[in-house]
Branched-chain-amino-acid aminotransferase
Amino acid sequence: MHNFLPIAYFRNQFVPFGEANLSIATHALHYGTGAFGGLRGIPDPQNDQQFLLFRLDAHCKRLSNSAKFLHYDLPADKIQQILVDFVKKNRPTTSFYIRPFVYTSDLGIAPRLHNIEKDFFVYGLELGDYLSPEGVSCRISSWYRQEDRSLPLRGKISGAYITSSLAKTEAVESGFDEAILMNSQGKVSEASGMNIFVVRNGKIITPGFDQDILEGITRDSVLTIARDLGIEVIERSLDKSELFAADEVFLSGTAAKITPVQRVENYHLSTERPITEKLREKLTAITENRDPKYQDWVFPIAV
Ligand code: PMP
């Protein structure tokens, strides 16, 4: 059971989490016509009167775009103000995860996005490690990542997560921790809720935006950090066998942070992971606001 933060934002106001409930007839529940964000925050290790949200502006922008795909006008600055107020009201005591959600809130049937009421809610939960920081085993999924011609992959559309769910469960039921999905071209796309990176000969390779990936904010952070550290980064299509032949493979996501991959199918990877560890150390320092160079990525909220 999760430890939910006590206050939710629901129907334009802050209410106790237990009172933020929806009808079984809610349109989005039936058609997957929602879109969400996912942010991590922590109490500031240097200042107990402050919380830190990582890359708040990028998350608000992505959610605002996702809302646009649902024909809902929700400006990024409005989302940001609600999220800041949300943190101030909750004053979490540990690392937490915030889940903002836009959705078709009408009661009624018929899939559509026009002439239908939409709404926005926010809730949060305490969140430790989503995947083992020691590393995970990955199965190549028999389910394929969707294509942008079927649904807007630049949004985090809730209906798309049926594929992630099928892939994750298939992986876990066959003894793996996580799934790696190929795209319809048979190239590596991403994991069930993380982007993927391969290290070969000191260079980092990750599938580009044309590989049906989610435009991950941690992915963007990793690429920026790597370039700043002088590590060569290549965004291109990636073959399955490159995962098996890699020196290092890691996953990135808000929930998963940087998680090393120990094994892909039955191909074991080295336990020496100099680049993964270097990036992970740097990302942790940045999220804890211990790296002045990346101060702009950390949004402090005083309470
Ligand atoms: N891909 C998918 C399918 C995801 O759900 C996520 C998590 N939001 C990611 C990648 C990683 O994105 P981010 O770094 O923005 O959390």
